[in-house]
Amino acid sequence: MSGQSLTDRIAAAQHSMTGSAISKAVCKATTHEVSGPKKKHLDYLIHCTNELNVSVPHLADTLLERTTSNSWIVVFKALITTHHLMMYGNERLIQYLASRNTLFNLNNFLDKAALQGYDMSTFIRRYSRYLNEKAMSYRLVAVDFTKMKRGADGVMRTMNTEKLIKTLPIIQNQLDALLDFQPNSNELTNGVINAAFMLLFKDSIRLFAAYNEGVINMLEKYFDMKKNQCKEALEIYKTFLNRMTKLSEFLKVAERVGIDQGDSPDLTQAPSSLLEALEQHLASLEGRKIKEFSTASRYAELSKYITQLPQQLCNAVTANP
């Protein structure tokens, strides 16, 4: 269905009569038009999140109510609008979403009204799980990983060992949920799913930047860690390598649908000798037989790797405001 439906027009008129400007804007952002939410409605809602006299719970609950629709278009656009406000709106919105006991309950969503509804419902279920995980991450650490300060004096680079080992798995879980969206380029067939994918693409760059900086910090601390910390850190690092492969596949889809390759980081894989150095160090702490691998060699492998990625990621983040 293209264009605003009669239902959309009636709903907007009702909100105009009751004086609910927020409800009207949400309604207009989540019409039955097969296109992403219009910028003017998103900008207005962002403005609302910054107004102290605006009820953020009312705004969030209005968006959540739109996800109870039977239409994949309305539900998808409600999720996109929520994601957009989480990214660009005032932090008190994500604070409220994180404080709720339940958020999006769309694991069984299915629009049977049209063939396209079946296809898009799959992505709605995946997308809602990511937004739930994004809110959960905020609840656990009280920070949005995609917005935190980066660089040598950033949050992840200056975090202590104990907190770092607890925080990195939370980033991993959020990135996993994002990468589980798993579209093929030929499935990005309309303006609605394309709008969602673009927001996910931007989140993936920032999320991985935080993840990468945390891993660099962890590796710099690794040879001074206690045995149990080394064991956890090694598993985190192995998971990180796997996520790099998955993210690379996700970014290839972005490239195929026309997102500039210059907007993506060059995910240079660490040499296998670095993983070997980490494994050998843990083996030595556990008293297992190891092959000769000098401390100087370990640090050489580490230094060679950690100097490669930060600037590439910084450039990618800057290119995707």
Walkthrough of the structure:
The protein is mainly α and 321 residues long. It folds into two domains: 144 residues, Serine Threonine Protein Phosphatase 5, Tetratricopeptide repeat; 173 residues, Methane Monooxygenase Hydroxylase, Chain G, domain 1 (Up-down Bundle). Helices cover 68% and strands 0% of the residues. The longest helix is centred in the middle third of the chain and has 32 residues. The two termini are 32 Å apart. About 4% of the residues have low confidence.
Key structural traits:
coated pit, mainly alpha, endocytosis, acetylation, 321 residues, Serine Threonine Protein Phosphatase 5, Tetratricopeptide repeat, Methane Monooxygenase Hydroxylase, Chain G, domain 1, nucleus
Overall 3D geometry? Answer: elongated
What summary fits the major beta sheet?
none
How many domains make up the 3D coordinates? 2
- CATH architecture label name of the largest domain: Up-down Bundle
Number of helices: 14
- Per CATH, the class of the largest domain reads Mainly Alpha
Quaternary status of these chains? single chain
Order of helices and strands: HHHHHHHHHHHHHH
Concise overview:
By secondary structure, this protein is mainly α. The protein is 68% helix and 0% strand.
Write the layout of secondary structure elements.
Blueprint (H helix, E strand, L loop, with lengths): L5 H13 L2 H9 L9 H11 L6 H11 L5 H17 L2 H9 L15 H27 L13 H4 L2 H19 L11 H32 L4 H30 L15 H14 L9 H12 L3 H9 L3
Helix pairs in contact: 1-2, 2-3, 2-4, 3-5, 4-5, 5-7, 5-10, 6-7, 7-9, 9-10, 9-11, 10-11, 10-14, 11-12, 12-13
